[in-house]
Specification:
three-stranded mixed β-sheet; single chain; four-stranded mixed β-sheet; alpha/beta
C-alpha cells in the first residue's frame, strides 16, 4: 500500500496515516487521470488559505518528490508531501452531488474547525 520505505515495517502506522477514497471519488479521479498521458497519480496537499488556515490543494501528479508519501486505493496512486501528512492522515475523500454541483468532499479526522463557508479548516 505505501511505497515509502520508512513506513513499510509499521503496518499500524500505515493504516492510521492512509488516505482513503470512496468509490465515487476514485471513479472521478480515474476519469481525470485517463485524460493525461503523463499522469502518475493524484496529489493531495494543503496550503494556507481561507479564514481558518488550511485548504486542500489537489492536482494531477506528473512526478514524485523524494519526501512524498505514496498510497494506493481503488487502483489510484495518491501522493502526499510528507510535511502535510499530520494534517491529512486518515482523511477520506468523497465525490458528491450537491444540488447542481459535484464536488470533492474531505472527511478529515484531524480538522478541529472550519470557516463558515467551508473553504478552509484548522487542526490542533
Amino acid at each position: 500500500m505505501v511505497q515509502s520505505p520508512s513506513l513499510l515495517n509499521h503496518s499500524n502506522l500505515i493504516l492510521k496515516m492512509s488516505l482513503k477514497l470512496t468509490e465515487q471519488a476514485a471513479h472521478r479521479i480515474q476519469h481525470f487521470l485517463q485524460q493525461d498521458d503523463n499522469a502518475i497519480g493524484f496529489r493531495v496537499k494543503v496550503k494556507k488559505m481561507g479564514c481558518s488556515g488550511w485548504g486542500y490543494d489537489v492536482s494531477i501528479a506528473h512526478d514524485k518528490q523524494d519526501d512524498d508519501v505514496v498510497f494506493e486505493d481503488h487502483g489510484i496512486t495518491l501522493i502526499v508531501p510528507q510535511q502535510d501528512m499530520d494534517k491529512v492522515k486518515g482523511t477520506t475523500i468523497d465525490y458528491e452531488r450537491q444540488g447542481i454541483n459535484q464536488i470533492f468532499v474531505y472527511k478529515n479526522p484531524n480538522a478541529t474547525g472550519s470557516c463558515g463557508c467551508g473553504e478552509s479548516f484548522t487542526t490542533a
